[in-house]
Design goal:
This is 3-dehydroquinate dehydratase. InterPro entries: DHquinase_II, DHquinase_II_CS, DHquinase_II_sf. The chain has 144 residues and is of the alpha/beta class. It has a single domain, classed as 3-Layer(aba) Sandwich (Rossmann fold), CATH 3.40.50.9100. It is built from five helices and five strands, in the order E-H-H-E-H-E-H-E-E-H. A five-stranded parallel beta sheet has the order 2-1-3-4-5, sandwiched between helices. Helix 3 packs parallel to helix 4. The radius of gyration is 14 Å and the shape is globular. Bound molecules: 1,3,4-trihydroxy-5-OXO-cyclohexanecarboxylic acid (DQA). The site of 1,3,4-trihydroxy-5-OXO-cyclohexanecarboxylic acid has 10 residues, from loops.
Amino acid sequence: MKIAIINGPNLNLLGKREKDIYGNQSFTDYLKELQHIFPNVELHYFQSNIEGELVDELQKAGYADFAGIVLNPAAYTHTSVAIGDAIAAINVPVVEVHISNVHAREEFRKLSHVSGKSAGSIFGLGLKGYELAIHWLIQHAQTK
Ligand code: DQA
């Protein structure tokens, strides 16, 4: 089974950026933990700081044999109609994940162009949110 993890802008700086909000761990380091937790799942990781590249990757994974996509569009969550449209354009289920609790922060972070198009959303649970999203996607694929 293949699951794609797609991270948006500035998430390449996890472990370095605003550690009080996003923690100390880099995503490449966390990815190793995830692969260990899910040894039978092929995790495909993609990160970009460029909106169109995220759209391209959603389209690619969305028309390939992926069981699901875990998506953290980061700041583009709050601005990108194109990313919302890309999710609507594919049939592979998408789980939106945010490390921080976007509803407990600035007002502009409460708007998501992604939530309404996703199977579900997880926010505020730190990096653990990615693990929970993968759990759900595996179960979802197995009950189809
Ligand atoms: C984020 C929340 C966004 O508002 C922010 O722009 C990010 C990260 C999160 O994972 O908590 O870059 O998506």
